[in-house]
Design a protein that fits this description.
InterPro entries: RlpA-like_sf. This is Rare lipoprotein A (RlpA)-like double-psi beta-barrel protein. This protein is mostly beta strands. It contains two helices and eight strands, in the order ββαβββββαβ. It has a single domain, classed as RlpA-like domain (Barwin-like endoglucanases, Beta Barrel), CATH 2.40.40. The chain has a six-stranded mixed β-barrel with strand order 1-7-2-4-3-8. Strand 5 and strand 6 form a beta hairpin. The longest helix is centred in the middle third of the chain and has 7 residues. The chain starts with a strand and ends with a strand.
Amino acid sequence: MVALRGEVSWFCCGNAWGPCGSTGFGACGTCSSGNYQHAWPNASDACLAITRPDACGITGMSRRTCGYRHYTTNLCNGARIGTTIADCGPQTDLWCGERTCCGSACGSNRIIDLTPAAYSVIASLSTGLRPCSVDSV
């Protein structure tokens, strides 16, 4: 997989953790806010039909299913984390053209949602969004 560049955000799932109350366990049935996991827009045909990264011009987003490991790098500080797919998301097409920057490092369009536990390893939850790159090595 060629590294994708875009935005990383965070979301709550599963058991209560940090800022999250209890909620559903995601499309894979294993998602938990306290685990190092993520949501991926191309986890299935049904997921892709909802998230529509292609509507934002994102191409080359590989089909990866539950449990697949991606590595997300925060382009603001170089912090990197490996997480596994536990849900479908983010709904990329809702934020086409959205752009977040820190200095000269920028990313457009949400391409991955991390659980709060994972996001907090690479950035403060209060930032909400960060430019990132995502790969599988």
